[in-house]
Every structure is written in C-alpha cells, then in structure tokens.
Specification:
By secondary structure, the chain is mainly alpha-helical. The protein contains 13 helices and no strands. Residues 77-81, 163-175 and 187-201 have low confidence and may be disordered.
C-alpha cells in the first residue's frame, strides 16, 4: 500500500468521523495491507486525540444509546457515581485498552507532562471504582474521552449524572475502627493539625485540577 492509499483511508475516516457516522477504527485498518496497519493506526490515534466531537444526528444518537456496550450501562440506574464507572469500563474494554493506555492518550491529548501518566492512571482507577465524583471532572477530560471512545461528551456526562453520586458506605467495623483511631489520636491533635497544614511534596497540580476542579 502506498502512502497515497494510507492517506486516502485516513481521509475517509476523518470525513466519516466529522459527519457523525461513528467510523470503526478496525474496519478502516482492515482496508490497509497488514504491514502498513501499524503506521495507519498511529495516524488514526493521532487524529482521535484532537478530533472535535461530531455533530451527531438523532439517528446516530439513537444508535449510540442502543449500542451493546452503552445500553447496559444506561439501564443500570441507581449505582453510586451514576453510570459513568460502568460505561467507562465497557468503552475501555471495547478498545482493548488498559487504564495505563487511556492515561497515556489523555496525557498526550491534554498536553500534560509525560511524568503525569501514572497520576492520571490512578485517577482513572478511582473513576471506574466509583470513588470519583463525576461533577468534579473537568470538561476537558470528558472531551478527550469522548473523542477517544467515539461517543458524545453528553453521553459520558449524562452517565455520571444519572443516579447521583455517593461515597462508598462504610461498614460497621470501619466505624468502630474510626472511633478507636479517634480516641488514640485525641492527645496528639495539635501535632496532627500542624502536620496536615504543612505543605508536602505532593502539591496539587494540573492533573488534580482536571479530575477534582469541576467542569
């Protein structure tokens, strides 16, 4: 396959994306010769990192909501953190990507320093465990995930809103442990307060702002 063919396939994918037709990356890779697929995949992922969210038609939105990956998440109302954790895991699995892979894509598309990948991955782990309040996640993160997963940003945000968010409930044993810890710490509250108010090495950075700063 010549570079002209590769450019043509990439151009066709971009046109389909911008038209809201939800092109499948694997389908377009299959059009290329096997030895050329790695380079084409890199080009497609480079586009998806910065691609605008398409203007989906009503028909396309209906297809997205009926997607076997998306529909079960939208039907699972009542989970803490809304439905976002379930939807995130399903969309990530569909791409065959790990949280580390997703973090790497976010670091690139959000122009973060390379050494922020591990911290970004940790936040993604919290997100899929329902430990992160969706309303605190920046719109830039939702935009980047929407481009990567090929779904509207509104679907991701809406999944976070459905059912509301609540912190995981603590067990009775945890409450007992907390009471015991409080009793043990009582004589040292002044020292603890001083330590907590002293800036540490883990100062808040742009990754914290993206996942905790709100939309």
């Amino acid at each position: 396959m010549s570079s002209t063919d590769r450019d043509r396939i990439l151009s066709e994918f971009i046109d389909a994306w911008n038209a809201g037709r939800r092109p499948d990356v694997d389908d377009y890779l299959a059009r290329a010769e096997e030895r050329e697929r790695g380079e084409l995949a890199d080009a497609l992922m480079a586009f998806l990192r910065f691609a605008p969210t398409p203007e989906y038609s009503d028909e396309a939105l209906a297809e997205i909501r009926a997607d076997p990956i998306v529909a079960p998440a939208l039907a699972a109302a009542g989970e803490r953190a809304g439905l976002l954790p379930t939807l995130f895991v399903r969309l990530r699995a569909r791409l065959g990507m790990s949280n580390a892979d997703i973090a790497g894509e976010l670091v690139s598309s959000l122009s973060l320093p390379g050494d922020r990948a591990a911290k970004t991955e940790a936040y993604l782990g919290r997100l899929e465990r329902g430990e992160l309040e969706p309303s605190r996640i920046s719109g830039r993160v939702f935009d980047a995930l929407a481009r990567l997963f090929g779904v509207p940003r509104a679907e991701l945000e809406g999944a976070g809103d459905v059912g509301g968010w609540a912190a995981p409930a603590a067990s009775a044993a945890a409450f007992r442990a907390s009471d015991e810890a409080a009793d043990a710490a009582a004589p040292h509250l002044d020292l603890l307060a001083k330590g907590l108010s002293t800036p540490g090495d883990a100062a808040r950075d742009e990754v914290d702002d993206l996942f905790l700063g709100g939309r």
